[in-house]
């Protein structure tokens, strides 16, 4: 069983009034949080699979999901790792320690 970790989304598109929602494969939704005009986060819901999973992000409470990407969930020893990809803007975000998350192209 996987889930409970925070994913951070970087982009120049967030406003304090945004109601951020992420939807993962299987229709599982997670409420997101505004951090700054270039950063938001959401908690990965409980999942029972690893591998490349599609997800979508909404900034209007789930009315429409205008952003989509792929999150890769894998298990290395006893630690789970996540890699988030937004192909439409060529951004990849990965982590091994969320307190030191990094974005790279």
| Overall spatial form | globular
- How many structural domains? 1
Structural classification: mainly beta
- Report the average pLDDT across residues: 77
Low-confidence stretches: 96-105
Rg from alpha-carbon coordinates: 13 Å
H/E series: EEEEEEEEE
Q: Could you tell me the strand content as a percent range?
A: over 45%
Helix share bin = under 10%
Number of strands: 9
Strand order of the largest sheet: 1-4-3-2-5-6-7-8-9
Biggest beta-sheet profile: 9 strands, antiparallel
N-to-C CA distance: 30 Å
Q: Would you write up a description of this structure?
A:
- With 105 residues, the protein is mainly β.
- The chain has one domain.
- Helices cover 0% and strands 54% of the residues.
- It is built from no helices and nine strands.
Write the layout of secondary structure elements.
Blueprint: E1 6-10, E2 21-24, E3 28-36, E4 39-43, E5 51-58, E6 67-76, E7 79-86, E8 91-95, E9 102-104
Question: Key terms for this structure?
Answer:
105 residues; mainly beta; 9-stranded antiparallel sheet; 0% helix; globular
Describe what is shown at a glance.
The protein is mostly beta strands. The protein is built from no helices and nine strands.
